[in-house]
Design a protein that fits this description.
Layout (H helix, E strand, L loop, with lengths): L5 H13 L2 H8 L3 H15 L4 E4 L2 E4 L1 H25 L5 E7 L1 H4 L4 H10 L3 E7 L3 H9 L5 E7 L6 E13 L10 E6 L4 H13 L3 E7 L2 H9 L5 E4 L7 E4 L8 E8 L5 H11 L22
Parallel strand pairs: 3-4, 3-5, 7-8
Antiparallel strand pairs: 1-2, 5-11, 6-9, 6-10, 6-11
Helix pairs in contact: 1-2, 1-3, 1-4, 2-3, 4-6
């Protein structure tokens, strides 16, 4: 019986997740041609077709779906075993604060990898939609790390990615044409909500808060139901939503910034490095992490 190399399985799982060879290649820091060759090699080893390639990407065959589940379990076990030996001396509590939109999307594989690679570390994640509240908790010593979305000209932190806020509606509801404009937003203190209200007031457009939630899932459910227009970063727009480009005021650009407390343990430093080095974020500057005790966050 032939062995299945871990490297090939890791490539396959990434392709199965993204269903796009180019995207998978970028996340794995390899050329698309290398990814293609690794997939072909894996199919030779299992003697069956795992992926069907087409004009718009790839899709898993029934055999591919079966392997995906088994491969993910094997990779998790492999990483847990390796982490227990390589990082057994890295322990301690890691208190991490972030927005719901990160915790449920881009951070999921990163946090999973951290838990597997550092089994002795005790990760505690706190989600809140108010960036300034998270930063105040960090300054007060109640958080070690904070990954937040800030206005593009804000000071402090390591800027990992740049985006912009956009208005979104569902495909089936013309919510953006109602008067006054109904909004589906987070509760008070959210940067998205504040930016939307300020932009509408500046343009003199009447609006009302039709739906509020403390979670991204709740806000998007209201948008899908036609209850209100939502405000989210462009890079997080769901496939079943429409970006409203006309008739509403432009919204500000944003930075995804990572803040770290001035005194942290090694486990916290490793999580910061995991986030910073992830291909999921595109580094837009070379700014360093700042001392939160002296650097203002406005």
């Amino acid at each position: 019986m032939r062995d299945l190399p871990i490297t090939l399985l890791r490539t396959f799982v990434m392709v199965a997740e993204t269903l796009n060879l180019t995207v998978a290649a970028g996340r794995l820091h390899r050329a698309p041609s290398t990814i293609s060759m690794q997939l072909s090699r894996l199919e030779e080893l299992v003697t069956t077709t795992l992926l069907e390639r087409g004009q718009y990407g790839v899709r898993l065959t029934p055999a591919g779906e079966q392997l995906r589940s088994h491969a993910q379990q094997l990779l998790n076990l492999h990483d847990r075993i390796l982490g227990s030996f390589q990082n057994a001396d890295i322990d301690g509590k890691v208190r991490f604060g972030t927005h719901d939109q990160y915790a449920t999307r881009s951070l999921t594989p990163l946090l999973e990898a951290f838990v597997l690679n550092y089994p002795e570390a005790r990760l505690e994640v706190f989600c809140d939609h108010r960036p300034h509240h998270l930063l105040s908790l960090l300054r007060e010593g109640k958080l070690d790390l904070a990954l937040v979305e800030m206005p593009v000209l804000s000071d402090g932190g390591l800027r990992l990615d740049r985006d912009e806020l956009v208005w979104v509606r569902s495909h089936t509801h013309m919510t953006h044409l109602r008067d006054p404009l109904p909004l589906a937003v987070f509760v008070d203190g959210c940067y998205h909500r504040d930016s939307a209200c300020q932009a509408l007031e500046k343009m003199g457009l009447p609006y009302r808060i039709a739906f509020t939630s403390q979670s991204r899932a709740g806000v998007l459910a209201a948008v899908r139901a036609g209850i209100g227009v939502g405000v989210i970063p462009r890079k997080t727009v769901e496939p079943d939503m429409v970006v409203v480009e006309q008739g509403l005021p432009p919204l500000p650009k944003t930075n995804t910034s990572l803040f770290i407390a001035d005194q942290v343990n090694e486990a916290t430093t490793r999580l910061a490095q995991t986030i910073e080095q992830s291909p999921q974020f595109t580094h837009t500057t070379t700014e360093h992490l700042v001392d939160m005790a002296t650097e203002p966050c406005e």
